[in-house]
Specification:
Blueprint lengths: L2 E2 L2 E2 L11 E2 L11 H4 L3 H25 L2 H23 L7 H32 L1 H4 L4 H8 L5 H14 L5 H8 L5 H13 L6 H15 L6 H15 L7 H8 L12
Antiparallel strand pairs: 1-2, 2-3
Length: about 260
């Protein structure tokens, strides 16, 4: 039997029963030798580690960039994405019912996210007193910076900002900032807690703010039912108020958001 390099063959005249390719030895100087010797499972696990390492590197690179650059880039990316989706929405007649419903639900979630970003920036502007620098209320300042923002929407943001300035009710603003509560529902909670400020001690305000914020975060609780929860809080907490005070504060909970006073 004679052997050719790399291939085992039978000599002429002998029946060839099988042929096998000999596995060449690993070249210790070949950078891909170890990878080539991996099984499929080992290779997939290795590539997962590579992807994770690359993601970590990209995250570190992003973290090293100034916040203003990353924020501007994120908003620009979001704007371009919405423009793209808006163009496609013009052809929504070709979309199936289920997909159309999913798209509408996605838009609702995006509105909550956008409200969270807008509130977070407005809260920071209020902390810095940017509206006071130009002798304006926060509502008016927001309307000047964002002409598309209605007075009602600006008043809702202002009401939450005001409530967030107190350590015991800052949970209301935090719930908006993390996207768990939309602005209009958080504003109802904020106005309620602001009007109860003189009737509760700090621990009570903290507890009731958390209760009301948790209720506002429930998607199965309608806006109407949330308003009833806030009214119930007022009724329960003002049992021993002066005559007429309970009714006055209960009715004030349902006031238009535009009536809320702005900080500064």
């Amino acid at each position: 039997m004679a052997l050719n390099p790399g291939v085992q063959e039978w000599e002429a005249g002998e029946p060839p029963t099988h042929r096998t390719h000999a596995q060449p030895p690993l070249d210790p100087y070949d950078p891909l030798a170890e990878i080539n010797a991996m099984s499929s499972a080992e290779y997939n696990a290795f590539m997962d580690e590579v992807d994770a390492a690359l993601d970590e590197m990209r995250a570190e690179e992003q973290a090293a960039r100034p916040v203003r650059e990353r924020m501007a880039e994120g908003l620009d990316t979001a704007s371009r994405g919405l423009s793209f989706a808006g163009a496609l929405a013009q052809h929504s007649a070709t979309v199936l019912d289920g997909d159309l419903t999913d798209a509408i639900e996605a838009v609702g979630a995006l509105q909550t996210q956008l409200g969270a970003v807008g509130f977070t920036l407005a809260r920071e502007a209020a902390v810095r007193g940017l509206h006071q620098d130009v002798a304006m209320s926060l509502v008016d300042w927001l309307r000047v910076r964002c002409p598309w923002l209605s007075t009602q929407d600006a008043a809702q943001i202002s009401a939450i900002v005001r409530a967030s300035q107190s350590p015991v009710t800052t949970v209301i603003g935090d719930a908006v900032a993390d996207g768990s509560v939309p602005v209009h529902r958080a504003a109802l909670v904020a106005r309620t807690m602001t009007r109860l400020e003189s009737s509760l001690d700090p621990d009570q305000r903290d507890s009731y703010a958390r209760i009301a914020s948790a209720a506002a975060a429930r998607p199965d609780l309608s806006d109407h039912d949330l308003a009833k929860v806030c009214h119930r809080l007022v009724e329960d907490l003002l049992q021993e108020a002066q005559p007429g005070e309970r009714e006055r504060k209960a009715s004030s909970c349902g006031r238009s958001p535009a009536a809320a006073s702005a900080p500064g």
